[in-house]
């Protein structure tokens, strides 16, 4: 095979995978180790790691290409389109690697972390950690073709893996500011196991533990509501009781009939007041 023919086969296969392919995939496409060596010497491809090669014209940044390369290396013989069609049934970038990929906090780590089903048949490349756990469709987002745990699931995983509170707090603060998580839902999911993960069980202490001095004014409306419910529950309850005594009969009836809605309205009022100073 000429270098032009081998480059054609490599380009077609890698082009369907954002410019990356494994040595095993290249072999299936008709390009062996010697062909890859010639293409690398010509500057047309370069080796990332884990016997994964990247086209020189690939648009992926080094960080994203490294994460994509690690994902491919978990199943080096399978092309991306041959892997499970449902992202949560395959390996998903997770924990500190997901936070870094999503631009949340300032997470560092010498390894890349993935979460995969317990029965997934995966390789274990160097400097890659695979956590075995079930994920649901709502736990995964696709970004730049890479399956990554959603911000909410990423934070839950960081807490459960006992990541330092300061690091988790920066991730939570960034996600809350960008409206990528709902603070109220996050608390509801973590509170039942608070003691297990050394988290304060009550809302005000939980908020202080993870949000520190983050002001309500830095948050979008949804999270101002969650912020108020966590930090100022007594004030929210006081406002809720006041709302249910409204003089408008129709409004009063709705708020009395639906206490949950009344609490949300009250939390929104308190959160707005906190944001306005």
Q: How would you sum up this structure, described in words?
A:
With 277 residues, the chain is mainly alpha-helical. Among the domains are: 1-61, Arc Repressor Mutant, subunit A, CATH 1.10.10; 182-276, no CATH class. 51% of the residues lie in helices and 12% in strands. It contains 13 helices and eight strands. The protein has helices at residues 3-15, 23-29, 33-41, 62-74, 95-102, 151-160, 165-177, 183-190, 203-211, 221-231, 233-244, 249-257, 259-276; strands at 20-22, 45-49, 52-55, 92-93, 112-116, 128-132, 140-143, 146-149. Strands 1-3-2 form a three-stranded antiparallel β-sheet, sandwiched between helices. It has a three-stranded mixed β-sheet with strand order 4-5-6. A hairpin with a 2-residue loop joins strand 2 (45-49) and strand 3. Helix 9 packs across helix 10 (221-231). The chain starts with a helix and ends with a helix. The mean pLDDT is 90.
Key features of this structure:
277 residues, Arc Repressor Mutant, subunit A, 3-stranded antiparallel β-sheet, 3-stranded mixed β-sheet, 13 helices, 8 strands
């Amino acid at each position: 095979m000429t270098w032009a023919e081998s480059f054609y086969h490599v380009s077609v296969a890698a082009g369907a995978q954002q410019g990356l392919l494994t040595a095993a995939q290249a072999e299936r496409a008709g390009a062996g180790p010697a062909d890859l060596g010639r293409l690398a010497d010509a500057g047309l491809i370069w080796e990332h790691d884990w016997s994964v090669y990247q086209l020189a014209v690939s648009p992926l940044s080094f960080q994203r290409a490294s994460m994509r390369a690690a994902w491919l290396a978990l199943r080096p013989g399978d092309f991306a389109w041959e892997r499970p069609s449902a992202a949560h049934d395959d390996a998903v970038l997770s924990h500190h690697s997901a936070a870094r990929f999503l631009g949340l906090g300032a997470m560092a780590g010498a390894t890349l972390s993935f979460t995969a089903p317990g029965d997934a048949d995966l390789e274990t490349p160097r400097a890659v950690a695979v956590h075995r756990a079930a994920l649901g469709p709502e736990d995964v987002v696709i970004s730049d073709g890479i399956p990554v745990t959603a911000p909410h699931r990423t934070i839950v995983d960081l807490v459960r893996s006992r990541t330092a509170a300061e690091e988790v707090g920066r991730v939570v603060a960034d996600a809350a500011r960008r409206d990528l998580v709902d603070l109220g839902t996050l608390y509801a999911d973590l509170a039942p196991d608070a003691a297990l993960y050394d988290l304060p069980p009550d809302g005000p202490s939980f908020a202080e533990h993870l949000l520190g001095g983050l002001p309500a004014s830095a948050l979008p409306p949804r999270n101002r509501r969650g912020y108020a419910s966590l930090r100022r529950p007594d004030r929210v309850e006081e406002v809720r009781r006041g709302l249910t005594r409204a003089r408008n009969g129709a409004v009063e009836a709705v708020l009395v009939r639906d206490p949950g809605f009344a609490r949300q309205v009250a939390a929104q009022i308190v959160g707005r007041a906190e944001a306005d100073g």
